[in-house]
Amino acid sequence: DEKILYQEDDDFKKLITSLPREKGWRVPDIYQFQGFWYHSLMLNCFFESQKHFEAQDSDIVLATFPKCGTTWLKALVFTIVNRKKHSPFSQEHPLLTSNPHAIVRSLEFDIFLPNRTPDLSSLTTPGIVATHSNFGLLANSILETKCRIIYLCRNPKDTFISYFHYAKKSRFNYYEGISSIEEGVDMFCKGMIPCGPIWNHVLDYWKASLDSPDKIFFVTYEELQSEPVSMLRRMADFLGYSFSDEEEESGMVDAIVKLCSFEKLSNLKVNVDGKAGYGLEYKHYFRKGGVGDWKNHLTNEMVERMDAVVEEKLQGSGLME
Ligand code: A3P
User: Fold this and answer.
1) Does the interface ipTM go beyond 0.90?
2) Residue 1: pLDDT above 90?
3) Fewer CB within 10 A of the terminal residue: the chain, N end or C end?
């Protein structure tokens, strides 16, 4: 229950009451801060992480908009980076018995929500952490050190459908939330989805990745689906963990793709009946795991409206090509 875990200080309470407020999806309210909409709890954790997170040069930050494939990215990067210690061929691999969220922690929910002054030395080396923060709220240390960022994004309509289903299953304390897909589409198009507008979240990281390609690797869910092996090679190169010829010959890259696949992870016992510390069932992180499910849920009218707004916001960025 978030109320037990979470205590706001007075300055934060004052700030929150001064911000524009809208109906939330999973908890009653979302607030607009510097152009982005957040649950108050999330915003507070971003501030804490901004103040206290001291990234190390060797750290890896996985940044995503919610529902773009964070679970998958956590599994892939953990496996790439730790393959010497935990062989992806092994039947003892940690991913076979632990959910990716239990292995790679989120800066907000796992690190700064339960404890404002967490012991960061307990992070593995290199530390891999995940965040849904927009680029502008990242801790300075993330930008000032040599730590690397991988940003994962996804087709906005698939992201919306995924979030809509997830929000329905994961509401807090019987909160009713967004009740119909029509209402969800409307909120989405106004940018009022937690961490949204999605186009601004994506654009800021996209621009930063063009400016600093050695610092930020920008990848899409669709690329990971259509060319997993070459994307994994590129990610490993970017992180400084390139696959050797020997590893390539052993089928290592394929083994990682298979181990981290939706089919494999979603059927493991831990992901079928396990729960996160904060009570969320791991199975809610696995729904369909494909590309284009929006076609099964959205009317032509909804599609036109969503496409128009996304195209308008992203035009000229090079992201639509
Ligand atoms: P769908 O709801 O479209 O199925 P996140 O991890 O950021 O919360 O995103 C969740 C989305 O990623 C869900 O999408 C989920 O099914 C999908 N997903 C989870 N694990 C995956 C994996 N190993 N491979 C591909 N997609 C995965």
Assistant:
1) yes
2) no
3) C
What is the extent of the structural domain holding 206? 54-158+200-314
Q: Is the CB of 76 under 6 A from ligand 1?
A: no
* Both tokens assigned to 60: 């890896």
Residue nearest to atom 26 of ligand 1 (CA): 289
Task: Indicate whether 27 belongs to any domain.
Answer: no
Over residues 293-308, the mean pLDDT reads: 98
Shortest CA distance to 26 belongs to which of 13, 40, 39, 15? 39
* Residue 282 located in a structural domain: yes
Instruction: Decide if pLDDT at 70 tops 70.
Output: yes
Task: Please state the separation of Cα 197 from the chain's center in Å.
Answer: 15
The DSSP output letter for 309 is: H
Total tally of structural domains belonging to the chain: 1
Answer for the pair 113, 41: CB distance below 8 angstroms, yes or no.
yes
CATH code of the domain containing 284? 3.40.50.300
Per-residue pLDDT reduced to its tens digit, 83-111:
999 999 999 999 999 999 999 988 887 77
Q: What share of the chain is helix, strand, coil (3-state, %, to 5)?
A: 50, 10, 40
Note whether residue 6 is domain-resident: no
Contact present, 219 and 235 (Cβ < 8 Å): yes
- CA 206, distance to chain mean position in Å, is 15
Q: Active site residue: 132, 165, 284, 297, which one?
A: 132
Q: Give the tens place of pLDDT for each residue, 117-136.
A: 677 766 665 699 999 999 99
Cβ within 8 Å of residue 243, ≥6 positions away: 233, 236, 252, 253
